[in-house]
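Weekly structure sync, notes
Attendees: PL (lead), two postdocs, one rotation student
Agenda item 3: pending single-chain targets
PL asked that the sequence for the first pending target be pasted directly into the notes so everyone works from the same version. It is reproduced below exactly as submitted, 358 residues in total.
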Amino acid sequence: MSMKPTPPRSSFAIAGREIGEGHAPYVIAEVSGNHNKALDRALKMIEVAKACGADAVKFQTYTADSLTLPSDRPEFQITTGTWAGWNLHKLYQEAATPYDWFPALFAHGEKLGLTVFSSPFDNDAVDLLEGLNAPAYKIASNEFTDWPLIRRTAQTGRPVILSTGTAGLDEIDDTVAFLESEGVSEFALLHCVSAYPAPIDSAHMRNVTALRERFPVPVGFSDHTLDITAPIVATALGATIIEKHFVLDRSEGGPDSSFAIEPTELKRLCETVRDAHAATGGPQFGMKDAETKSPIYRRHFYATRDIAQGEEIGPDNVKAIRARQGIAAREFETLFGSTARQDIAAHEPVIWEAIHAR
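Predicted structure, written out during the meeting:
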């Protein structure tokens, strides 16, 4: 039975790390199948993600049978894109992370102080991850309308992050309403373009803005473009989660290696999106905190020569220069044509007390 709808939260924490407005983007380094069926490589990728500054590393928990059928029918053959020529079942067999690895993966992340979680693709996967005390769940774009799976993750009471690739606004509205009806208040929506790789001119980054305006929850970006430009743009638009596939070495291949970034790029991504977030403060006008520590010299009027008492003030005896004293340059119409109340020495600031204003 569905629960009473629960209002969503604008921020929540995963393993103690707050996510939402006012917090630097939560960077998820996505391993997917780029471990190439080597546990040592998967463990190394956790270490590298930690060293690069990621907040979390994410895997995918499925078997080929949980995603598709072992069929050779035409509709199960991939004919275009990165995986052209593959049979779906065989591709998923190749890319799947063995279930018996997950205890070691979670333990290694805990040892390093790096959050490890995963995208489940069926109830058995959720059960496995629950047994490992997974701190959150990620729903992939193609499972965005798999409400039975979403219900099972909702039953865990843990935060849920959902990618929205290919979903229309009506579907997003419906799934958000379903989450709320299932009692989920801690969830986030990620803009995503489900193309592998996604062309930069098809990134549609204003979707981040549209999602933020429509839903009072953390909004992020799951990126499949070839570099880190789009995540920086997403951060500037208010994204609070950034997910990016990575690989230790693209030249060694891997199911997702063609659109994954290498460690040097991941490090730069982590640093740059946090800098981008830090740069998006405000709006704030007038003197900023940083400016109070800088030598600010705005234009003020100073005497360019000695001015005698009673002498008229004008461009021939005063000049607006960069300085911290004197009448502001914007007051020139009031100043020009006034007379000196007292003698003003050359290179002294011209102040209101020293003149008879017009």
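Discussion points:
- The chain has a mean pLDDT of 94.
- The chain has eleven helices and 14 strands.
Action: rotation student to compare against the earlier draft before next sync.
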